[in-house]
Amino acid sequence: MFITIPISGQSLLSIPIAAMNQTLISCVLMFVVTFIVSILFVSWLTKLRLADVAARVREIETKAEEKAALLIQNAELEIRQKQINTKEEAERELRIQREEFHERERLLNKREDAITQQQDQLKKQEKVNENTQRKLNEKIQENTRRAEDLDRLIQNERVILHELSGLTPEEATRRILKDVESGLQQEMGAIIARHEKKMKENCEDISREILLNAIQRYAAPHTAEATTSTVDIPNDEMKGRIIGREGRNIRTFESITGVDVIIDDTPGVVIVSSFDTIRREVARQALAKLILDGRIHPTRIEEIVLETQAQLEKSIQRIGEEAALEVGFPNMHEKIINLLGRLHYRTSYSQNVLRHSVEVAFLSGMIAEQLGLDEKLARRCGFLHDIGKAADHNEEGGHPKIGADLLRRYGEPKEVVLAALCHHDDYRAESAYTSIVAAADAASASRPGARRETLERYIRRMEELETIACGFKGVEQAFAIQAGRELRVIVSSKDATDEQAAKICRDIVRAFEQQLSYPGEIKVTVTRETRFVEIAK
Length: 537
Prior knowledge:
Elements: E1 2-5, E2 13-16, H1 17-165, H2 169-217, E3 228-232, H3 237-243, H4 248-257, E4 260-262, E5 269-273, H5 277-293, H6 298-327, H7 334-343, E6 347-348, E7 351-352, H8 353-371, H9 375-383, H10 399-409, H11 414-422, H12 432-446, H13 453-470, E8 475-481, E9 486-491, H14 498-515, E10 523-528
Parallel strand pairs: 9-10
Antiparallel strand pairs: 1-2, 3-5, 4-5, 6-7, 8-9
Helix pairs in contact: 2-8, 4-6, 5-6, 6-7, 8-9, 8-12, 9-11, 9-12, 10-11, 11-12
């Protein structure tokens, strides 16, 4: 049997079927043999790999075992080393403790030996004390016997003396004590007089040196206040405008400010006169503003004066703050600062009171520093000692008492209050700072050119004129002008009629004649004015 296989471009190929089967079987057998050989080869390779892996595992295990053994060995060595170190440290501590114990034992033995020696010495001392006590008792007994014998002898002598002198024991005792006292008094008097003289000389020298050092260390300008101020004017025509029609402008200005405006032939100036420096300063500034403004009439005058008074109050506060800062006390009470500012416009024997207070403050601080006292407290005492002069024209009493009351009211220290109260020796000085302030006050006032007594008397007379006039019922204001030769009094229209105003004028004149001593005459002018004001809206 044949199989025909077509071949492209050729004729059909015929192959016998038996030959084909034999070839196929051979291929199959060859494939099987090849597959079996491949399996055997793969298994052989696998065995080889397994053997290699097992060898590697055994090698790794061997190395791990060797490493573990080495680690165990190292750990054992470290443990042994630590045990050795611990043992050595324990032995070292034990050795140190033993040495300490030995040292303490040695010290205890030494102390025990010292205590034993002290006990032996105490026993010896006790024996000596016993012997001494026994001897003292014997001497005391002997002295007691002698004292008894002396008392008997003295008593016998007294009896004999009394019999001979004819005096009783009391009379003799009094006579002896009197003689002894007389002798002691003379001796004590001589000793006291000698020491007082020496102490006085030393104190005078020391105090003189302290004052001279303080005065040399501080130098202040001398001041001399006047009672007049001048205001420059651009031309003489301005004088007529200041006077106003029928003098109404100048009368209004003088009535509101309480000063005397002097307009004479002196070219280019107008003089403002008043003993009160604050009042005069208000008038001077207000007049200068009116001249600069050009609108001079009663209503404008009143506005400018009120405005100037408000500005001057601020200026007073600023001056007080500057003075307090200069002395070193910037945080004083606001009322005290205002009073200090007002002292700038007060004078004492022509000496500016504020500058005088600053000078006394520094002098007091320097004196206290040399005496070893509180320099800052002494400076505060000196700075505020004349504070009462800023309010003495408004309250009764002298400026020391007024100042002390004000300082006490505003919480100042006790030493400051006493310095203000006692610096003129009106009261007994209870503090060393009071004496220091009194000395500094006298040093400031007594130096050449510091004061002139005539101006102080003049200002005091002006103040007395105004004070007496203001004491009458219904009087609102009183202004002394013309150097005290004239007094202008403003009476309230609500509290007094025209007849009562006339009576007030006569009563003021009589009070001046009875209470004051003055040269020449004093003209008293009483004004009662009714004013009506309406506002158009």
